[in-house]
Amino acid sequence: MNKEVILSLKNVNVVFSKVGKYGIKEHNFHVLKNINLDIHAGEIIAIVGESGCGKTTLGKIITGLLKPSKGEVKYRSNNVYGFFKKDFQTFRNDVQFIQQDSYAALNPVRTIFQSLYAPIRAHHHDYSREQINKRIEELLGLVGLLPAEQFLDKYPHQLSGGQRQRILMARALSLSPKLIVADEPVSMIDVSMRLSILKLMANLNRELDIAFVYITHDLGTAKFIADEGNVAVMYLGQIVEYGPIRDFIQQPLHPYSQALISAVPIPDPQIARQIKEIKIKGMEMSSLENRNSGCPFYARCPYCHLDCKDDKKEYLTVGKMKVLCPYYEEILNANKNI
Ligand SMILES: Nc1ncnc2c1ncn2[C@@H]1O[C@H](COP(=O)(O)OP(=O)(O)O)[C@@H](O)[C@H]1O
Ligand SMILES: [Mg+2]
Question: What three-state secondary structure class fits 80?
């Protein structure tokens, strides 16, 4: 991809403290470990991983809602934590976060009109009341909520989950962002409405050239929206595999990715035949708090080697993919269906 990198994460680490009884700090644990990610203008990246692996934390890091414990967040090549207030604000406007729970994201005592009015007013001091009204109508049109008058005086609880997600999208768009991070935007809405929200994001990406980071635990929706984009597969706070989602689905390389894909029904029988189910070790869910050093998948990987517990693992480049497993080839060979 030749487009410019708008945002990049360099060796980002986030460490949280577990606080026990009486507020006493028990221990620290890594929620994100050595995350490197480049986001290009106008691209779509899906971040896929199971619940609790650090996806929302990563979304907050990208959007500047949370500062890394270590590492850098760069917006247009500049470290955002070195910005003066005004530039930091520009970065925050340009990079928007849409949270999973649309109900919690909207002020329950504000009408839709009021929720959209405030950010436009703050962003465009010079706009007249008429201009703001016009912009609100335009935004509601962009997210498919027409006729606008039908929604302006409503309160969040009077809308469906899908409609509220669209309002969040409109609010994010009001700041003319370059990048939107959407955190599981369809996981809390009716299955019947999911596709239309995903299509809306794909359209906004195409028509307004806004880059999207789509966070999900569901590979199916990731494939739908990022079909021409990239996927980052996360496991316990680390990206274990990264690259074009089409290549990924054809041939997942990391053993965790293989386990992930073998669990998803794939409509293409040719691909489905190639993918053999991986028997994961242990029934217990792994957690960030008791993760071992080295490869995050070590405890569950049926192919682990002793040195997988060493921490200094580099990503290997395989075609357009990057994978955090030095033994991927051996594992692929072991799994070939002949
Ligand atoms: N502010 C916080 N303080 C301490 N732990 C947190 C905080 N936020 C999230 N966590 C923990 O970090 C881990 C990852 O959370 P999260 O990023 O929300 O994962 P995901 O979105 O993939 O489900 C979880 O174990 C969660 O309990
Ligand atoms: Mg989350």
Answer: helix
CATH at residue 71: 3.40.50.300
pTM score? 0.94
Ligand 1 pocket test target in 25, 26, 57, 234 with most atoms within 8 Å of CB: 57
pLDDT in tens, 101-140: 999 999 999 999 999 999 999 988 899 999 999 999 999 9
Cβ of residue 30 lying under 6 Å from some atom of ligand 1: no
Please tell me the distance from the alpha carbon of residue 302 to that of residue 320, in angstroms, as a whole number: 26
pLDDT above 90 (res 20): no
Nearest C-alpha neighbor of 179 from the set 153, 214, 146, 145: 214
Q: Which domain holds residue 39?
A: 5-109+179-196+208-334
Q: What is the rounded CA–CA span in Å between residue 28 and residue 5?
A: 33
Cβ–ligand 1 distance for 56 under 6 Å, the answer yes
Helix axes 129-142, 112-123, angle to 10 degrees: 120
> Which ligand has the minimum distance to the alpha carbon of residue 187?
2
Kindly state whether residue 51 falls inside one of the protein's structural domains.
yes
State CA 317 to chain mean position distance.
22
Query: Does residue 213 form part of some domain?
Result: yes
